[in-house]
User: Fold this.
Amino acid sequence: MSTFNIVFPDASIETANFLEDWPRPTGLKLTVDCGPRDSDEALIERCKKADAILWGWAQLNAEVLAACKKLKIASFLGIGIDGYIDMASCRARGIKVCNTPNYGNRTVAEHAIALMFAVSRQIAKFDSAVRANNWSEDPPGLELQGRRLGIVGFGAIGREVAKMALGLGLEVVAWARRPERFGLAFPSVRFVTLADLFSTSEVISLHLQLNDQTRGMINAQLLDLMLPEAILINTARAGLIDMAALERSLTEKRIFGAGLDVFENQGQSIAKSALRKLGNVVMTPHVAYNSTATTRRMVMIGLHNILNYRAGQPTNLVP
Assistant:
């Protein structure tokens, strides 16, 4: 049997280090590269002989894929593959594409909760003040206990946020396309319409996948329903929100603030954005998923997708 080549073209140094001890199955070669991932030429050079690609941030566009003549499967380290691979090229050539669901439900949920506290207690603002030797105790923050949290999307991460929020003493309402699936497991969560959720919740956390149905779903009409002391949290995808409308709400202080972990074009849109100058916004660079536990879990799921494909039982296929 010929060697089956797996290439990991955009690994972190930490990931490369722990993969050194991963026992390679017979007949399999794993090549891990930590070099720059911002050029098609570099990706092609690394991946052109791959039977399988395990990847995270690199963009496997049509040109890169066309150069990978042997490629049979691409396993993405994440869930939403939008913008990371040319699916049309994969379908045309019969290349299977997998993702790694459920690798970081708890970690992402913890980050969403952390952003709620960071915004409500204005942590970033006070941190900057202390570093500038400005010992000011104003303005006061908001206490979260007893407030209503609205969760938009009640998948695995949304449910994890609900569990944590209920434990913290928040009231939880949620919106889901099929709420009847969750009622028995979450009797303390009341399912409402989107309009009700946005008009009555003091904290709103988004946990939806980005697709044709959800892109721009959080529009100006919904944002205008938000309460003056409301906080919007997004650890899902930037494309869910009409960002121009959100900027207006934050700039005009129609809402208390926002905690954002995701941005269009991996943050390139922030360079000219008014968000950078607003004190009522806490921003992190798409790191909600990022913990030592989730990184290892994600890579192992990604590798097993490839091993399962090789064994004739593919898992976590993206349609």
Notes: The longest helix spans residues 292-310. The radius of gyration is 21 Å.
